[in-house]
Design a protein that fits this description.
12 strands, 18% strand, alpha+beta, six-stranded mixed β-sheet, Glutaredoxin, globular, 268 residues
Amino acid sequence: MTTGTKFMYGFIVMLWVVAGAAVYVTFFSADARQQLANSQGASSEEPEGEQAEVYEEHKTIVFNSQGEVVDPEESKDLPRTLEPFSLVNQSNEKIGLEELKGKPWVGTFVFSSCPGPCSMITGRMKQLQSEMKGVDFNLVSITVDPKNDTPEKLTKYADAFTADLKNWHFLTGDMNVIYELIRSGFKMPVGEIKPGDILHTNRFVVVDSEGNYVDSFIALQDEQFHALKKRLRDLAEEPSKDANQSPAEEASPVNKSDQSSPTTEKES
């Protein structure tokens, strides 16, 4: 076979290869692109449907610019008396509204397997406990996942934050009781979006010594954290002032005047 014949055969083979590639690009790759487009369209539709379903289920829930859950009803009609409830703490002791009366308390809603801000919320509670040792109040962390958060699991969770359990309760119990307390008592959102993903508020709630819900703070913000500490100090001082004030002192304008100066000193 001459060199020219070899060249001709090689050229013909090259033409067949180019033609085959053109056919593939025209038909097969167009098919593949369509399938890819369809699959991408389907995957992009799924989250939208999921979001719509979640939004439909939690119509009153909105988020602020920092991604925190805000309930437009939470600040209405305060102070508000809470209905009695009964749960158990990490030591399996009964703790409810009655047991918490006598001291103001700050509550949060978290769960031990939370992939979100719960660790930051509980860390703030630890900071609150450390920085306010001279103030007489209780801390209450209520799980929003009572099906999984047993007293034993909450004990491990408390240990992870080196919580002082003298005035800090980690509560669990009946889910209906907990969700009713959060939704009806504190007017805040809570609910399982999907297994392991529970929507709950980031707010810290404040209850006075008589069991009245009086305030709430987004304590992950420094400014509101300081405001929370001041609110707790004021509430903790109220019972002692009332207890030390006799009826005669209350009726006397002179004594009222005398009592104003120590208050001014404390504020300064």
